[in-house]
Design a protein that fits this description.
Elements lengths: L2 H4 L12 E2 L6 E3 L2 E8 L4 E5 L2 E3 L6 H9 L3 H10 L3 H11 L6 H8 L6 H5 L5 H17 L6 E4 L5 H6 L6 E5 L2 H11 L4 E4 L15 E5 L8 H12 L4 E8 L14 H6 L5 E6 H9 L2 E3 L6 H6 L2 E7 L7 E3 L9 E4 L3 E5 L3 E6 L4 H6 L10 E5 H8 L5 H8 L3 E4 L5
Parallel strand pairs: 5-8, 6-7, 6-9, 7-8, 9-10
Antiparallel strand pairs: 1-3, 2-3, 3-4, 4-5, 10-13, 11-13, 12-14, 15-19, 16-17, 17-18
Helix pairs in contact: 2-3, 3-4, 4-5, 7-12
Bound molecules: zinc ion (ZN).
Zinc ion binds next to loops.
Amino acid sequence: MRPDTLTILRCPYCGGRLTVDETVFHRFDGDAAIDAVLSCQCSQFPVVSGIAVMTVEGVAETAREQVADGDPAGALRTMAGGGDEGAADRFAAAIASPSATYRDVVDALGPEFAEARYFLYRFSDPTFLVADAVVRALGQAVLGGGGRAIDLCGGSGHLTRTMAEFTPSTVLMDWTFVKLWLARRFTAPACDAVCADAHVSLPFASGAFRLAVCSDAFHYIWTKRLLSAEMLRLIGDNGAVALTHAHNSGRDNPSAGMPLAPDGYRALFEPLDSRAFSERNLLADVLAGRIDLSRRDDERSLAADPAVTIVASRRDSVFAARPLEERRGVRGELRLNPLYDVSRTEAGATLRLRFPSGDYERECAACRTYLPEELTLDGSVLSAVDKSRLTEAVAALLSRRIVLDLPEGYA
Ligand SMILES: [Zn+2]
């Protein structure tokens, strides 16, 4: 936890500022707190492996006692297991290997880590393509002059990674500690991570951020009035908020949560200019190399779409059409999309699309609009991909998501 983030951190209960308790065990890396205990006027919270745990619920109190007693490894085990000894053991065994990948750790966490597959294929799913493009558009609109961005209920940090291209001050918040750990190790190492509950006041100062995004999660939050008001509080007068992939209550969804109608989401962000966008229309934009937030989708297309994106801001410049920026280089490691079965031959390889499950195939059916069923790649292209070299042919495959630019050590 960087000092810059510590200055905007607030107690979710009393709203007070936090300071490192120097009377108990604390460990810093440079000026960043790695393991420490934070105090406000009402409570104490642990920082475990750099992640601030801003709650007194669940196993947080046990972890705080372990940090205070000088047992940070025990605290990490407690938070990662969340009360499940088996999960804690498997996590500890997986991370003991320095070469463990994101995929290895996710696999080790087992089938109870239900969304594992979903996270593994995240970078090419249609929901992510839209969310990524919306964050890029909003990053250009509101982060140009600096400012922080926050990814709320952001899981293991896939969208946080996009935010980090626009600002060095990105914060990822989620309720599941182990996802935050994965984000800091693999997906978005530059972010600061905060383990906190989106059903209570958010543990940050008012106006601390320019951009607040909640992707594919708002429909699982019961206290929508509170979370939307908190998002508005965080961005102050000059920022923007976005809900991407908010399920539409008027349409069936295999994992619906507690959705609202598009207008219900939009109304939560009054009095700002708040607009709802059909995700199908946004995906069509993305596949055409642009994102158009100046459009006003009609009620019929919104009502027909299983998911919508909501954007709210006081800044007119947010609601504009923008081209998606050309890729300038490789950020991580180039890999063939894991949705492909790859048969390598001497001359190259044949790729066949294979979905990990029927559920995934139904939920992400729009993948088929940009991922071909089958294709062959010649040896020179494969070799460039293997060496993470961005040739013209590789750039074309990247734009079709047949090749992905994944975080180092991801799969
Ligand atoms: Zn407090």
